[in-house]
Amino acid sequence: MHTAIFVILSALMAGFSGVAQAELSFEIEGVEQDELEDNIRLHLNSLDISQDALNDPFWREQLAQSVATAVEPFGYYNSATLVELAPDNEVILRVSLDTPLVIANVTREIIGPGRADPEFRQVFNSFSLAEGDTLNQPVYERFKSNMFNYALSHGYFDFHWQATRLDLVREDREANILLIAQSGPQYQFGKIKLLGDDRASAIIQRLRPFEQGQPYSSKVLTEFNRQLNQAGYFSRVIARPVVSEADNLQVPIEITVAHKPRDNFNVGLGAATDTGPRARLKWQRPWVNENGHSASAELFVSAPEQSITAEYLVPMGNIKRDYLKYEAGYQFLDYSDTNTESETLSVSVHRMVQADDSPWQDDYSLTYLREQYTVEDSPSQTTQLVMPGYAIQYLVKDDPLNITRGSLFRTGLQVGQEGLGSDIDIFKAVAEARIIRTYQKHRLLIRAETGMLATSNFGEVPASLRFYAGGDQSIRGFGYRAVGPEEATIFDPSTGTEEDAGGKYLATVGLEYAYQVSSNWRAAAFFDVGTATNEFEEDPAYGIGPGVHWLSPIGPVRLYLARGFSPEETTWRFHFMLGPEL
User: Fold this and answer.
1) Which residues contact 564 (CB under 8 A, 6 or more apart)?
2) Could you write out the three-class secondary structure of 108-169?
3) Contact at 8 Å (CB) between 565 and 543?
4) pLDDT top residue among 46 and 142
5) In the predicted model, what is the mean pLDDT of residues 172-186?
6) DSSP character for 320?
7) CA 257 to CA 253: how far, in whole Å?
């Protein structure tokens, strides 16, 4: 019986205690500076105290002492605090800061080689407290820490504070600051020390953004690590300074690398209405030789279509931005229901050039294209072209996936001349622009594309070089390549069907507005207009409709319902797109 009563009383006491320990709310008066008030609240939060306990002078003194401790680093060493209780667990603190300590003297000096380094001296002289300023200890401590970090990141590995002192003369309301730095010598980049397989030595030397003997900089080393990890050759790589092995002030840079597997394979299986069951095999070899050459190939197999493509990259200057690319492809099509066979062979060489930190990329190319196909019992037809070309691209965006601001401009041309490897004279030019701008929750996408084709015999121009409009990235509301000249169709061996013959000219414009309805969703509306034609007397096609964007972790997913209008037909289509617009 006594035990039961004791348990009940204990529970009741715990309940009353929980009510008494309700969280207090503090109203702070007499403090105008946010930094001061934030520090006071930080100190008050560390106190475990109830409102009832504040009736005890001891706890009131504890509150006042906490406030005094919080304001002292900001020069207020003579503050006083009056504690008042208010209803609803509120406590009013009336703070009198009194006169702060003022800095009377600041003595600073650099000893060592850093004294002759203009940048080191500039950082050291950036100490913001001066004679006559109110003492601010957080600024004083931050400067000491920042100066130490700067010294280490710029090769002054022996840096230390020879003397630091903060003298407080409370009776005079003054403070004196002493800062004497011993810089020590500035170390330099030394030799590269490669751990593991040394086949990457040549590539690493080419990526190295510093020369041996150059003053050490952690920023330069960070950039080196970034380039190594983006080179595409390593599954893991890290470069770090080994200060303990420095020789004559030169610090060796130790690089630990783990190479990607010699061969990578990817297999894909699927099915489609046009092809039936299909399989895709991709092979990649990141390392072909010690110079960093890489190769890849892809094999596609289905009942009517078999193709193989290959790519070979040769790094030139900047490994990721400046390289030679050799491409080759062969495709065989056999549509038995239309007695059609087709063979296409293409070979091209590209020289890609992009300066460091530049959004501009140049592409110099030479392409050989040969298309041969047979329809029914007609004689085989073949077109052969050799076309040098040039393209230039400008690309900037604020995020790789979810872009709020970005611009893309791209233009290029290809030329072929009869008698110089080509069956016909041909000139093709294209230009494209896309701009994305976001203003708060409003997002606008503007895109435009134009092209022209001049030739001595349009009938022999391969379908792959003609202009078509329609599709996700062109005029929504129409199928891919569904918009073309009204007057003609040709047989396309890639699908085994009659399709628009394609045009000599292309012009499309698209506008899209999107509104951010939540953190991961946007509602959109668009209008597209344009045509692929042989003469601009034809009425254009246009599409309009609503859409929705889901900002997924792997990039935006966009879905649109489009109504397409053209002189021949009116259509409804869904369009689904995954990935960024630029």
Assistant:
1) 475, 476, 477, 478, 541, 542, 543, 570, 571, 572, 573
2) EEEECHHHHCHHHHHHHCCCCCCCCCECCHHHHHHHHHHHHHHHHHCCCCCCEEEEEEEEEE
3) yes
4) 142
5) 92
6) T
7) 13
Q: What is the pLDDT of residues 505-543, one digit of tens each?
A: 999 999 999 999 998 999 999 999 999 988 887 889 999
Segment 417-442 shows an average pLDDT of: 93
pLDDT tens-digit map of 46-76:
777 766 666 777 877 888 888 888 888 888 8
Residue 3 pLDDT = 42
How deeply is 206 buried, as exposed, middle or buried, from its count of CB atoms within 10 A (0-12, 13-18, 19+)? middle
Of 81, 91, 159, nearest to 120 by C-alpha is 159
Asked if the model's pLDDT at residue 15 lies above 50, the reply is no
Record the pTM: 0.64
CB 289 within 8 A of CB 315: no
* Whole-number Å distance between alpha carbons of 123 and 242: 26
DSSP result, 168-201: EEGGGTEEEEEEEEE--PPPEEEEEEEES-GGGH
Look at strands 25-29 and 90-96 and give their pairing: parallel
Residue 395 burial (CB count, 10 A): 15
3-state secondary structure of 475: coil
10 Å CB burial of residue 190 (0-12, 13-18, 19+) is buried
Half-sphere exposure of 505 (CA within 13 A, CB side): 10
Contact 542, 527 (CB under 8 A): yes
| 8 A C-beta contact, residue 532 and residue 506 | yes
- Which structure tokens are listed for 485? 């000249």
Tell me the C-alpha distance between 366 and 353, whole Å.
15
Angle at which helices 218-230 and 137-153 cross, to 10°: 60
Tell me how far apart the alpha carbons of residues 514 and 547 are, in angstroms, rounded to a whole number: 9
Q: What contacts 250, CB < 8 A, 6 or more positions away? A: 187, 188, 189, 190, 191, 212, 213
Question: Span 389-396, mean pLDDT?
Answer: 95
Length of the chain: 582
Using N-to-C axis directions, what is the helix angle for 57-71 and 34-45, rounded to 10°?
Answer: 140
Maximum pairwise Cα distance, the chain: 115
Quick one: pLDDT band at residue 582, thresholds 50, 70, 90?
Answer: confident
Which of helix, strand or coil describes residue 40? helix
The amino acid occupying position 125 is N
Side chain identity at residue 352, one-letter code: M
What pLDDT score was predicted for residue 483?
A: 84
The larger pLDDT score, comparing residue 336 to residue 443, is at 443
